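Quick one:
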Amino acid sequence: MSAPGMDDSMRTPLARARGLGSAKDGVHHWWVQRLTAVALALLTPWFVWLLLSMLGAGQDAWRMTLANPRYALPLLAFVLALFWHAKLGVQVVIEDYVHTRWQEVALQLLLNFACTLGALAAVFGIARCMFVP
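Output:
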């Protein structure tokens, strides 16, 4: 991209960045991070209340509680928002602080795998309580 005979280190940062364009993903990422934060801000007090109200309850009481959609659906929303929000936050940390390309890719893959696996396990557990007697 540089002129013939011109060393890239002689170019200004703006000249090096010009023409690269935007990934066009930052605004979407920012909005989703904020929306999941709002969802968590609303659902976390409910989740804490649920945990405190079920303190000392046995497995059967938990299964009966989660069999009720009034409790299962907000719990599903909480779990999905939690894992999505965590994934987005850790993704930004990896992008900002890991500068070796292969390490960044490996960590991003590990992050995606871990968050997906965690969310699926939680959804499966809640669904099992809802549908299996």
